[in-house]
Amino acid sequence: MSGQVEDLRLDTSHYALQVADSLAIMHWDARIDAADVEFILDAAPCLAQEPLPAVARLKRLKENSSTIVDAVQSQAAATHMWLLNFNQCQPLPIDQEGVDQGVKRFFDNDPYYPCPLAATGITGEGLWELFANRYLENVGNYIGADQECRVLPNEFILKSRGGHAYTLGRKSAGS
């Protein structure tokens, strides 16, 4: 998740929180497995808070210079996240089978989610912790007082974390 967001110099933690919010809503309010959903970033023109470089400054640039940094910085505050492609989502049972189904769909769609076993720092372990904590914070808004149901989101997070260890090992062994 963080690679493209970082390339655009956007705040990865902001988007990790939005993804966690969305996934918690899909799982525990809409009760769907989020199979193959896509998180899309889009810049909204005209909402930029910083003006693009002045013509005088552009004239002083050396040949083959780039203004992409200026454009990205001016668009950062106007970037929005959209959630698309719900056509493959299936109902998510609120039981152990549903947790396993949610974990499977999480890994099927993992380019959109923080990886818990990446290098440390906000782009790795710290980003995963931020994502996992926010996901678990939101669950209370959607699950009632049933104690059996309240343990399921924790199991989802634990299995997602453990599953990343398995898939990373499998990918490196196959490389």
In words, what does this structure look like?
- The protein is mainly alpha-helical and 175 residues long.
- 53% of the residues lie in helices and 7% in strands.
- The protein is built from eight helices and two strands.
- A two-stranded antiparallel ribbon has the order 1-2.
- Helix 2 (12-28) runs parallel beside helix 6 (125-139).
- The radius of gyration is 19 Å and the shape is elongated.
- The chain starts with a helix and ends with a helix.
- The relative contact order is 0.18.
Major sheet, described briefly?
A: 2 strands, antiparallel
Report Rg: 19 Å
The helicity comes to 40-55%
What is the number of strand segments? Answer: 2
Can you count the helices?
Answer: 8
Strand percent estimate: 5-15%
The average pLDDT value, as a whole number, equals: 75
Shape summary: elongated
Concise structural overview:
With about 180 residues, the protein is mainly α.
SSE topology sketch:
Elements: H1 2-7, H2 12-28, E1 38-43, H3 55-60, H4 68-76, E2 79-84, H5 96-108, H6 125-139, H7 147-150, H8 152-174
Antiparallel strand pairs: 1-2
Helix pairs in contact: 2-6, 5-8
Essential attributes:
53% helix; 7% strand; elongated; single chain; two-stranded antiparallel ribbon; mainly alpha; disordered C terminus; 175 residues
